[in-house]
Specification:
The chain is of the alpha/beta class and 289 residues long. It has a single domain, classed as Alpha-Beta Complex (Inosine-uridine Nucleoside N-ribohydrolase, Chain A), CATH 3.90.245.10. It is built from eleven helices and twelve strands. It has helices spanning 20-32, 48-62, 78-88, 102-110, 114-117, 147-154, 165-168, 175-185, 191-212, 222-229, 274-287, and strands at 3-8, 36-41, 68-69, 93-97, 120-124, 131-133, 136-138, 160-163, 172-174, 216-218, 238-241, 263-266. Strands 3-2-1-4-5-8 form a six-stranded parallel sheet, sandwiched between helices. Helix 3 (78-88) crosses helix 4.
């Protein structure tokens, strides 16, 4: 594995909020524990205060050992942490960005060469057109949460991969995956932690059943981590981003056919093997404990 930072808007455990950031963190702890430099917290699924609260509870309930920024006991901000880690290992750090891109833009204000020093940035966000899931409209939450920061990051000198909403909606987590996790974790973590973990996931499954009519949920953010570790699970398309991203307030990406003006980025169009995707996910999360 390679040096990794997760920049996320984790709300695992908060009522009626997405849980995929938390699952992505668990995946990284299982798959890349020794190379996970830390987690920087941003907004999107919740406010900065909500994300911090959820992450502290997440770490406590599951007894996780991982550095997160900001931390009330540490002076280092999330952007400062990002800038520091990338400067310490130029061209070696991959950032998985699964929330608003505010921290990454702010890191570039600390170090103007920040983007060029990263190895790559894999972002979950954006849509190619208004997104529907099971016939219901879904508002894009990441790029739209800070459109100016999103444009700065996407059009920067960094090596960018975009896991957009149309793709990630197909990363479906169902009761089958929950049962597989239950089987693997039942004897690995304390009963109290296991009960809390199950309760949170079950509640999110039920919320999605009510609002989207299926017994599962879109595991949006997990695609960034699986693309990092198992890129063959995804198709290999590239696109040219237009130099002015005029619809990012709605999370909509804009493209060009002009190679002189466009920014080339990877943007997979298809998840090729959902079964393998979920098997890799379950196996890695079970190793996080």
């Amino acid at each position: 594995m390679e040096k990794v930072i997760l920049d996320c808007d984790n709300t695992f455990g908060l009522p009626n909020r997405d849980i995929d950031d938390g699952l992505t963190l668990l995946y990284l702890l299982g798959e890349a524990a020794g190379d996970l430099l830390g987690v920087s917290l941003t907004h999107g699924n919740g406010t900065p205060a909500e994300v911090l609260q959820a992450t502290q509870t997440f770490k406590t309930c599951l007894q996780l050992q991982v550095e997160t920024y900001p931390d009330p006991s540490a002076a280092l901000s999330a952007p400062a942490f990002l800038a520091q880690q990338v400067a310490a290992a130029p061209h070696e750090v991959t950032i998985l960005a699964t929330g608003a891109l505010t921290n990454l833009y702010s890191a570039s204000q600390i170090d103007p060469d920040f983007f060029k020093k990263t190895k790559q940035i894999i972002v979950m966000g954006g849509v190619t057109h208004p997104l529907q899931v099971n016939g219901r409209p879904v508002h894009e939450l990441n790029f739209s949460a800070d459109a100016a920061a999103a444009q700065a990051v996407l059009l920067s000198g960094a090596n960018i991969t975009i896991m957009n909403g149309q793709l990630t909606a197909h990363a479906f987590f169902s009761v089958k995956e929950l049962k597989a996790l239950q089987t693997r974790l039942a004897e690995k973590i304390p009963a109290r932690a296991f009960a809390w973990f199950q309760e949170v996931i079950t509640a999110w499954l039920e919320w999605n059943q009510i609002h989207f009519g299926f017994n599962g949920f879109c595991n949006w953010d997990m695609t960034t981590a699986l693309f990092l570790t198992h890129p063959a699970l995804f198709s290999a398309e590239e696109v040219l981003l237009a130099p002015q991203q005029t619809q990012l307030a709605e999370g909509i990406l804009t493209f060009t056919n002009d190679p002189e003006k466009g920014k080339k980025v990877r943007m997979p169009a298809h998840l090729l093997d959902l079964e393998a995707f979920n098997q890799f996910m379950v196996a890695a999360i079970s190793k996080a404990f």
